[in-house]
Write a structure and sequence with these properties.
Layout lengths: L9 H8 L3 H7 L7 H30 L11 H31 L41
Helix pairs in contact: 3-4
């Protein structure tokens, strides 16, 4: 479903990856696919669904507010519910757009594999001084009783 429908970020995906979205979906089934491409297409799929929700609510509100519609059919409760639904869908859309945009900005250039991070343990150059256990001047002495 999300492969055939467009999203508001398809132009950015094509710009970054250099191929149309349909070609990116075909490339995603290859064995040596970039993890960034897989994540980008997953976020795009969520974005497509969310943008579809926004459009459905918008169209429902437009239909309810049609000037030719009987005013007796108007419902403030229904419009409030649609406003809440629209707000939630817009928030989700904005979140997916932001996440996809951040991924596209921070991923390595196409064709470049991320290098593994190597950690090296440096040898200690100095030894720590030995610490003697604290001794008491009364070690082993019997405790004097108090009057």
């Amino acid at each position: 479903m999300s492969r055939t429908k467009s999203s508001s970020m398809d132009g950015e995906l094509q710009k970054v990856f250099g191929k149309p979205v349909s070609a990116l979906h075909e490339a995603a089934v290859a064995n040596d696919v970039s993890p960034a491409l897989v994540r980008a297409l997953e976020l795009r799929a969520f974005l497509v669904l969310t943008e579809e929700q926004v459009a459905r609510v918008r169209d429902r509100v437009y239909a309810d507010m049609d000037p030719n519609r009987d005013m007796g059919e108007l419902s403030a409760d229904k419009l409030r519910f649609d406003a809440q639904w629209l707000e939630a869908a817009l928030d989700a859309r904005d979140g997916y757009r932001a996440a996809l945009g951040e991924l596209l900005r921070t991923m390595p250039p196409p064709g470049q594999r991320p290098r593994p991070v190597r950690t090296t343990q440096l040898p200690a150059t100095t030894a720590l001084p030995a610490v003697a256990a604290p001794t008491s001047s009364r070690a082993g002495a019997a405790r004097a009783s108090r009057p």
